[in-house]
UniProtKB/TrEMBL annotation, chain A:
Species assigned in the record: Pollutimonas thiosulfatoxidans
Transport among keywords: yes
Residue ranges of every copy of the Cytochrome oxidase subunit I profile domain listed in the record: 263-531
GO process annotations (BP): electron transport coupled proton transport; oxidative phosphorylation; respiratory electron transport chain
Descriptive protein name: Cytochrome oxidase subunit I profile domain-containing protein
Source organism superkingdom: Bacteria
Chain ranges passing through the membrane: 6-28, 83-106, 132-151, 163-183, 195-215, 227-249, 261-286, 298-320, 326-348, 369-386, 406-424, 444-464, 492-513
Pfam families: COX1 (PF00115)
GO cellular component: membrane
Database matches in PANTHER family: CYTOCHROME C OXIDASE SUBUNIT 1, CYTOCHROME C OXIDASE SUBUNIT 1 HOMOLOG, BACTEROID
Record bears the keyword Transmembrane helix: yes
Organism lineage string: Bacteria, Pseudomonadati, Pseudomonadota, Betaproteobacteria, Burkholderiales
Entries under InterPro entries matching the protein: Cyt_c_oxase-like_su1_dom (IPR023616), Cyt_c_oxase-like_su1_sf (IPR036927), Cyt_C_Oxase_1 (IPR000883)
GO molecular function terms listed in the Swiss-Prot or TrEMBL record: cytochrome-c oxidase activity; heme binding
Key words, A-Z: Electron transport, Membrane, Respiratory chain, Transmembrane, Transmembrane helix, Transport
Automatic annotation (TrEMBL), chain B:
Residue numbers spanned by region Disordered: 194-216
GO-annotated molecular function: electron transfer activity; heme binding; metal ion binding
Protein name per UniProt: Cytochrome-c oxidase
Keyword Transmembrane helix part of the UniProt annotation: yes
Organism of provenance: Pollutimonas thiosulfatoxidans
Lineage: Bacteria, Pseudomonadati, Pseudomonadota, Betaproteobacteria, Burkholderiales
UniProt key word Ribosomal protein: no
Cited SUPFAM superfamilies: Cytochrome c (SSF46626)
Membrane-crossing residue ranges in chain numbering: 7-28
One Pfam family hit: FixO
Length: 531, 216
């Protein structure tokens, strides 16, 4: 059987390479044409060359962006309601989710703190943190952004906004139900899949009603070309339901085999759901703010398909050294290394675009969030590829290092991109600028400083812990004692990040509640007129 | 990339390939495992205890997959047992392999810590046994009573951890079930050659000798 599996393994790898080779050849020979013109479809006539970020470029830029936005405002309007509901819900989940994160972190060095409240014992608070930020904050806000962004790149209003309302309601209900269930000890017990499958049905139904409007809008698009952000969002919207349904079928998966399904799912939630959303947003926001198309658009095609081919097969590296076949682990190690391809492709596009326009980075807080997020994507992916090498994994596996890495991806990358995107899009949606620009800076520095402390603490802790777990002469007592200062550091960093989130949420509430003032308004709701 | 349908079909096609490689093929290979002769199915009480293990999230600090000596000698030095094989998990749903070792590996905890009293004390207050432990205490799995009833299991505690006023700590069903599950965790029987072939042997220096997996 081993030779058969070995052959299959090699076949999968070679097939991926051949597919990419054909793609490169097709692009090089202009069989598939993706060039500057396609990259510029996100701009309306006359818009190219004008930086756009109402909260940062101030008055001198306002008249221009104001003028160009009139047409687009007609497109934004149809989806305004559901998008605002989704984003508000997402931000509430962010507050709840990060509070659970801080509780879990504190409990690791204050083990008797609130120990008699079963609902927030470490094992539950940690689980609630993960599920709420993944399925609440990141997914809900991400879908909200997608439902705003897709109509814009398709040049047509969102279809079936009422269905999106229903979807938002059901999804929120699902996350709430899952939260209550897990807090009270009702859990499926599988990492990333703890919400009971009965409650997952509600989430799945909600997801269906959220994906439908997006797909229907895509099918009725007015633009000939599908901009790269659209590839990522639409693919994510078919990938995630597939993953979620297959992984949740009750009774199908058992024992060691269930572990492979577990990590096929859990790593693909990052790779084929959160990553496409983050990358897709950055691909839209970066050129929009700068006012110039991305650096090398045809490389983005390579980046997309190589992400799909390689990222989808990396999950088993979580089981390295475990009771599952060597070939499956090796397959995931190989694909993890291949992840350098899509990551570099995205890096070329996004980083070069910003690096050649540093003036915009200095002025726009929104771009600052998004680009730092995009840089963290590059870093966390490189780190992930390195971690999948066996000799490195021997040390980092089973340690806090992995937790640090997960946060570099889900927080440093996806959450920062989301923050920046929301700072850019909200003034367009509500027709007002952010009322207190200073609060944006406060938010920025709290999360950047907080996250740096968080990440550095866990990385050092993880290496020390991993070295200890490799040394037969060390003891568990020694390892645990040496962890304490770093776990405390993590709590400090996490608390700063959470404070930043409260500042952000308060600012968001002020923006929503504030009465329109004539001097400060961006008139995005003027009637649509042809340009 | 101007067409919607090819994009979506391509995306699903790629994911199907990944599903074939990471889910279907491993399932085809692993599902052939038989339970090792010495491995007993869980009793009803052990299964209740396993539910407590799941409900309280023990998995987030305790793995259940000792590593091979080819990878590290630490696991063997701690007495955590030989590297596990797929058959060892035959009766495990959901799987509880875990990915974190804030605490020790527990796959063979029943073989190395056989005392129910030790586990009850440790669950009620880990620091009554190890002053350096950062494991949560689980007071909600215990009752504090003025006097123990006849069939109550009283938790033995050092003086400074006893409740004031001569009251006693007794284990609730949750704690007793959980300890019953922990005591059942014992996969120290030898693993067959076929089973060892099904685990990740990428760290073993000489894969042709099965000895690597037996040691520890």
């Amino acid at each position: 059987m081993t030779p058969i599996l070995g052959t299959l393994l090699a076949t999968s790898f070679v097939a991926s390479l051949v597919a990419l080779g054909i793609l490169v050849w097709a692009v090089a020979n202009k069989l598939i044409f993706v060039g500057k013109a396609e990259a510029s479809t996100i701009f309306m006539e006359g818009e190219l060359g004008h930086p756009d970020d109402s909260s940062s470029f101030g008055k001198q830029n306002e008249d221009e962006s104001h003028h160009f936005d009139v047409l687009r405002a007609g497109i934004d309007r149809a989806g305004k309601g559901p998008v605002l509901v989704l984003i508000t819900a997402g931000i509430l989940w962010l507050l709840i989710g990060s509070t659970f994160g801080v509780i879990a972190s504190l409990k690791l060095h204050w083990p008797d703190w609130l120990a008699d409240v079963a609902q927030i014992t470490f094992g539950r608070a940690r689980t609630l943190h993960l599920n709420i930020v993944a399925y609440g904050w990141l997914s809900v806000t991400g879908i909200g952004v997608a439902l705003w962004l897709l109509p814009r790149i398709f040049h047509t209003p969102l279809r079936r906004p009422n269905m999106a309302y229903l979807g938002a309601f059901l999804w929120t209900l699902g996350v709430l139900g899952g939260t209550i269930a897990v807090a009270n000890g009702w859990s499926d017990g599988i990492e990333w899949l703890e919400f009971p499958w009965q409650i997952d049905l509600v989430l799945a139904l909600g997801g269906f009603f959220l994906a439908w409007p997006a797909i229907e809008t895509a099918a009725r698009r007015k633009s000939r070309h599908i901009y790269v952000s659209g590839w990522y969002f639409l693919a994510g919207m078919v990938w995630f339901p597939f993953l979620f349904l297959v992984a949740n079928i009750p009774g199908l998966h058992v024992g060691a085999q269930q572990a492979t399904v577990n990590w096929w799912f859990a790593h693909n939630v990052l790779g084929l759901w959160l990553t496409p959303m983050g990358v897709g947003m950055a691909y839209y926001i970066i050129p929009k703010i700068i006012g110039k198309p991305v650096y090398s658009y045809n490389v983005s095609l390579l980046g997309f398909w190589s992400l799909a081919l390689f990222y989808s097969q990396v999950g088993i590296h979580h089981l390295m050294g475990g009771p599952i076949p060597t070939w499956a682990v090796t397959l995931s190690v190989v694909h993890s290394i291949m992840m350098f391809v899509p990551v570099i492709a995205v890096a070329i596009n996004q980083h070069v675009t910003v690096a050649t326009n540093m003036w915009a980075f200095k002025q726009s807080m929104s771009l600052r969030f998004v680009w730092i997020g995009a840089l963290m994507y590059t870093l966390s992916s490189f780190q992930g590829s390195i971690e999948a090498i066996r000799s490195v994994n021997s040390i980092t596996h089973f340690t806090h290092y992995t937790v640090g890495h997960a946060h570099l991806g889900a927080y440093g990358f996806v959450s920062l991109v989301l923050f920046g995107t929301l700072y850019y899009m909200m003034p367009h949606i509500v027709g007002r600028r952010w009322p207190y620009p200073k609060l944006v800076q406060t938010h920025f520095w709290l999360v950047v400083v907080g996250f740096t402390i968080y990440f550095v603490s866990l990385t050092i802790a993880g290496v020390l812990q991993g070295m200890g777990l490799m040394d037969p002469g060390s003891s568990f007592a020694e390892i645990t004692r040496s962890m304490i200062p770093y776990l405390e550091g993590r709590s400090i960093g996490g608390t700063l990040m959470t404070l930043g989130h409260f500042v952000f949420a308060a600012h968001f509430a002020l923006l929503l509640l504030k009465k329109e003032s004539s001097t400060n308004s961006v008139d995005t709701f003027a009637p649509v007129k042809a340009s | 990339m101007n067409k919607l349908l090819p994009l979506l079909i391509g995306a699903i096609g790629v994911l199907l390939l990944a599903t074939l490689m990471l889910v279907i093929l491993p399932a085809w290979q692993l599902r052939t495992s038989q339970p090792p002769a010495q491995l007993q199915p869980y009793t009803e009480q052990q299964l209740f205890g396993r539910q407590q293990y799941v409900a309280n999230g023990c998995i987030y600090c305790h793995s259940q997959q000792p590593r091979s000596t080819g990878q590290t000698l630490f696991d063997g030095a701690r007495g955590w047992g030989r590297a596990s094989t797929p058959g060892d998990y035959f009766y495990d749903t959901p799987h509880l392999l875990g990915t974190m070792r804030t605490g020790p590996d527990l796959l063979n905890v029943g073989a190395r810590l056989k005392s129910r009293d030790w586990h009850l004390t440790h669950l009620y207050q880990p620091r009554a046994i190890f002053d350096w432990s950062i494991m949560p205490s689980y007071p909600y799995m215990f009752d504090v009573k003025d006097e123990a009833a006849q069939d109550d299991v009283v938790v033995r505690l050092p003086a400074q951890f006893q409740p004031p006023g001569g009251r006693v700590v007794v284990a609730r069903k949750e704690a007793l079930d959980l300890v019953e599950y922990l005591l059942s965790l014992d996969r120290t029987y030898p693993a067959s050659h076929e089973e060892l072939q099904k685990r990740d042997r990428g760290y073993d220096h000489r894969p042709e000798t099965a000895a690597d997996g037996h040691a520890g």
